[in-house]
Task: structure prediction
Amino acid sequence: MIMITGGAFQGKREFAIHRFGISGSDIADGAETEPEKLCGSRCICHYEQTVKRLLAEKKDPLEFTGNLDCEIVIINEIGSGIIPLEKSEREWREAVGRAGCILAAKSDTVYRVCCGIPTVIKGEKT
Result:
C-alpha cells in the first residue's frame, strides 16, 4: 500500500496521478463512494470523509481501515489548527488521525505532499 497525506488542496491527487500513472477512473472518492465499495479500488481519495461516513453510520472506522485493501490511499491531514467546539467534529478528527496511523503502518511507502512537493516519510521512492 502507498499512503499520500498532507493538507487540503496541496496537490496530493495530482501527485498520485502523475507519479503512479493512474487515471481519474482509477480513483474512488471517499466522500461519494459507499465505504464497502472502496475495498479493492486502485486509489481512494478523501479517506478522511470515509471515516466521517463510517462514524455517522455507527461503524468502527479503525476496524474498517485495518481491513482496507487498496493500492493507494490519499488522506487529508485534519488535526492541525483550532480544536472544534462540536464533540462529533473532535471525535472525527481523532478517528482520522488514528486511521492515518493504521494506514501508515500498513503502507510500504508514505508520502507527505506540501505545495505540490512530495516528501517520502516512510519507505523508499517507488
Summary: The domain at 2-122 is CATH 3.40.50.300 (Rossmann fold).
